[in-house]
Amino acid sequence: VNKNLIVRTILATVMMGASAASMAAAHQVGTSTATISGSFVSATCSVIEWPHDVTFDPVSLADWPKLPLNQAVQTVEQGAFKLANCPANTRIKYSVQVPHVVDGNNYHAFPEADDGKVVKGIGISFAATEGFAVPWKVDGTEANLGTTDDKGELTVPAYARLIKRNDNLSKDNAPWTGGNIKVVATYNVSYD
User: Fold this and answer.
1) In the chain, where do the E strands start and end?
2) pLDDT of the chain, 192 residues: tens digit per residue
3) Spatial distance between the Cα atoms of 59 and 166, rounded to a whole number of angstroms
4) Which of 2, 50, 152, 173 has the most CB atoms around it within 10 Å of its CB?
5) Gap between the Cα atoms of 29 and 24, Å rounded
6) Parallel, antiparallel, or unpaired: how do β-strands 91-97 and 186-190 relate?
7) CA separation for the pair 104, 169 (Å, rounded)
8) Cα dist. 171→30, 94, 116, 160 in Å?
9) Hey, what's the torsion of the CAs at 64, 68, 69, 74, to 10 degrees?
10) SS3 for 84?
11) Which residue, 65, 104, 98, 87, is CA-closest to 152?
């Protein structure tokens, strides 16, 4: 009798469980799936503004010998390096490369005349401040431009300066009688 009662109780429990399960499925409202995704990409750091072309005001050949030696004749603003979308709080490097670095002074560039020949007695230099507290090397040496902010942005002004290096201006070891001058500076910006 005891065995019979136990078997009936187990059988009733199983039937009630099956009935409850079929009742639960009868009230289901719906099923949905959701995909959660993302990606990891390289930074899209870019220079959105570079120092631009500038022109010094004309300098009188007659006044050149009267100007102080190794002093600034003119300083012009070239705009700025403006970086955006870079990694936040990251040190940015730069370099400046010119075709004709002054012998013994890697902060000055010799300009070229219209015919492409080097004009000596004149130096062109570059810096991030109008006062040229820290001039930039022009031989391609890398240096610290600055550190990006929390948004990955950095703006650094750029200036060019015309400097009197000698009383006598020369081209091909002969007196230079004037004309146009230019220096083509190649700027490079990077980070590790």
Assistant:
1) 46-49, 72-84, 91-97, 101-102, 105-109, 112-113, 119-120, 122-127, 143-147, 154-164, 170-171, 174-175, 181-182, 186-190
2) 566 666 566 656 656 655 555 555 678 888 877 778 776 656 589 999 999 999 999 999 999 999 999 999 999 999 999 999 999 999 999 999 999 999 999 999 999 999 999 999 999 999 999 999 999 999 999 999 999 999 999 999 999 999 999 999 999 999 999 999 999 999 999 999
3) 14
4) 152
5) 11
6) antiparallel
7) 18
8) 87, 31, 10, 22
9) -70
10) strand
11) 87
For residue 104, give the amino acid letter. Answer: G
Strand-pair partners of 81 = 156
Q: What's the length of the chain?
A: 192
Specify the residue for token string 């002054």. Answer: 102
For residues 132 and 73, the answer to whether their CB atoms sit within 8 Å is no
| Main-chain phi, psi angles of 107, to 5 degrees | -105, -5
- Per the listing, tokens 């290096």 go with 165
Amino acid occupying residue 19: S
